[in-house]
Design goal:
7 helices, 2 domains, globular, Rna Polymerase Sigma Factor, Chain: A, mainly alpha, 68% helix, single chain, Arc Repressor Mutant, subunit A
Length: 171
């Protein structure tokens, strides 16, 4: 690796490191496996950065590389994970809403429950959810995933509706 490549990687990690950590956390709950995943993402970025030609934003490029690694990790991990569920199947599980008196605790439980629900989604649905939570535009999500912008919008709408129902926000 040249000094220029090392400097470029460090700039990317400085700029996107926290987002890459969040992404890894969303793909892997186990801390030691998550650390391995982060390293896989960094290695993929080392390999991919020299090919970056600015046809998209650096942010989109980094997310595309990281999400591809995360999705591959999730697919490889199917044997040790609970099964993934379709969006519609989230409704089959019981809703457990904490009493309103425990507002702080309730918020933490809801965040934890949402994270568990997101972990259960199929890789593409999880990927779109994470990109949405990171604030990416629909067009960027489409470019990262290879889906059309219309398909991204439709899937996100269905995912949000299912997660809202599961979280007790609608029925």
């Amino acid at each position: 690796m040249t000094d220029e490549e090392r400097t470029r990687l460090q700039e990317v990690l400085d700029q996107f490191g926290p987002a890459l950590q969040r992404l890894a956390r969303s793909y892997e709950e186990n801390p030691s496996l998550r650390a391995d995943l982060v390293q896989e993402i960094y290695v993929a970025l080392v390999r991919a950065l020299p090919t970056f030609e600015a046809r998209c934003s650096l942010r989109t490029f980094v997310y595309r590389v990281a999400h591809n690694v995360g999705a591959s990790h999730a697919v490889r991990a199917t044997s040790r994970r609970a099964r993934w569920v379709d969006i519609e199947d989230l409704d089959d599980e019981p809703v457990d809403v904490a009493p309103a008196a425990d507002v702080g605790l309730d918020r933490r439980r809801r965040v934890d429950r949402l994270a568990r629900l997101i972990h259960q989604l199929k890789p593409i649905d999880r990927q779109l959810t994470l990109l949405f939570l990171e604030g990416l535009r629909t067009e960027d999500m489409a470019e990262i995933t290879g889906l059309s912008a219309t398909h991204v919008t439709t899937k996100l709408s269905r995912i949000r509706a299912a997660l809202t129902r599961r979280m007790g926000g609608g029925s």
